[in-house]
Known about the structure:
Number of strands: 14
Mean pLDDT: 94
Order of helices and strands: EHEHEEHEHEEHEHEHEEHEHEHEH
Strand order of the largest sheet: 8-7-6-9-11-10
Low-confidence stretches: none
Strand content: 15-25%
Radius of gyration: 18 Å
Shape: globular
Largest sheet: 6 strands, mixed
Helix content: 25-40%
Amino acid sequence: MSPSTPIRLVALDLDxxxxxxxxxISPRTRQAIxxxxxxxxxxxxxxxxPLASLPPLVAQLPGxxxxxxxxxxxxxxxxxxxxxxxxxxxxxxxxxxxxQPVRLLHRPMPPETARExxxxxxxxxxxxxxxxxxxxxxxxxxxxxxxxxxxxxxxTEARQPDDGRYHVVRDQPxxxxxxxxxxxxxxxxxxxxxxxxxxxxxxxxxxxxxxVQGSPDNxxxxxxxxxxxxxxxxxxxxxGIPREATAAIxxxxxxxxxLARAGVAAVMVNALPEIRALGDIVSTxxxxxxxxxxxxxxxxx
Length: 301
């Protein structure tokens, strides 16, 4: 399949899509992105992660300038120094060469909604991350649980190194009491996929939220109406690009909205069956075997 309208903007999910199971990007995929950028296509990461957790190897891809983060709660223009923009949100930013990005879109949760969601999360066991202004905040017990999960290599998101990107706060409830108006997203990894599945309807029942899953054992909560697809079309509008000239590539539940709203929905073969069903085009290769590069070639990017 090749789109009737030339694609001018491509949004890429990270975990399970652009990144392989070792959190790397293959040479063939790197080249496919470089070739598309060289032809004037805007390629950007579109992720549930905050800006601080955008992997440096993604920020250093050729032509990367924009990023959609926290499931669409923020859209960033990282300018000419994307890596410096990512480092600007690290806990140890003062020791790094940084660059201040421009936030083009920001949709934090209403404070009372953030408090209600946080209270529900307190009923469960697992590392809870709070994303705010591009940063990721955990408390010390949550950081220990997160690192234990990383050591079990349960997902590429779990493989994120403890390289200064996390802000460890003494007391999450106390932090939230002062910053409830700044919360972009909550993300918890539960002790099992079964617990997460049982919790998901409870979060979805909260008024004023969107609750999705980026992996089977997590639940991610943002403000109602916030999703990757809405953010993608908002950025396309800012750049003067019509919907039919956009494409989205993803694999998981939190990619559903961007796949539904983009001009072309391209889905990884390793996606869940219900997500594959959304695809205008589905790769024959998975994220460990150049699936993104294959989709770029089939879309004539």
